[in-house]
Amino acid sequence: RNNTVAYGGTVWTVANAMSLEADFDGQVAETFAHLDSFLQQAGSSREQLLSVQVILADIRTRDRFNVLWCKWVGDNQAHWPQRAVFGAALASGLLLEVTAVAARPYHGAA
User: Fold this and answer.
1) Residue ranges of the chain with pLDDT lower than 50?
2) HSE toward the beta carbon, residue 7, CA cutoff 13 A
3) What number of other Cβ atoms are within 10 A of residue 105's Cβ?
4) What value does the CA radius of gyration of the chain take, rounded to a whole number of Å?
5) How far apart, in whole angstroms, are the C-alpha atoms of residue 82 and residue 103?
6) Which helix (DSSP H) or strand (DSSP E) does residue 52 occupy?
7) pLDDT tens-digit map of 74-101
């Protein structure tokens, strides 16, 4: 599957851990690392996130996710995107998946 699509000044991406044996914190860290990489490759960054949807395999991990999210996204509320977190069934061993929309500089070409 394609994990990132960019068109004009917008980037759509999805990230998840590949280390399915990792614990929740490990999968979150790996997912954030992939998200940073995908955004950077598309000419964007976490500071340009507009919207994020977080899918948790177990919604009871939401509070722990919020702690890790706040450390990753930073203290500057001006850079916080709109965010939704919900629980849903994911592939076996996968504890979360993150989809995001971000802005990027647009110079007239996709």
Assistant:
1) none
2) 2
3) 8
4) 14
5) 13
6) strand 49-56
7) 988 888 999 999 999 999 999 999 999 9
Yes or no: say if 53 and 88 are a contact pair by the CB < 8 Å rule: no
What DSSP letter does each residue of 24-47 carry, written as one string? HHHHHHHHHHHHHHHHHHTT--GG
Structure tokens at 22: 């990792």
Strand 82-87, strand 49-56: pairing: parallel
Q: How far apart are CA 94 and CA 23, in angstroms?
A: 10
Phi, psi torsion values for 99, nearest 5 degrees = -110, 145
DSSP one-letter code for 75: S
End-to-end CA distance of the chain: 20
Single-letter code of the amino acid located at 67:
V
Cα 96 from Cα 88, distance rounded (Å): 9
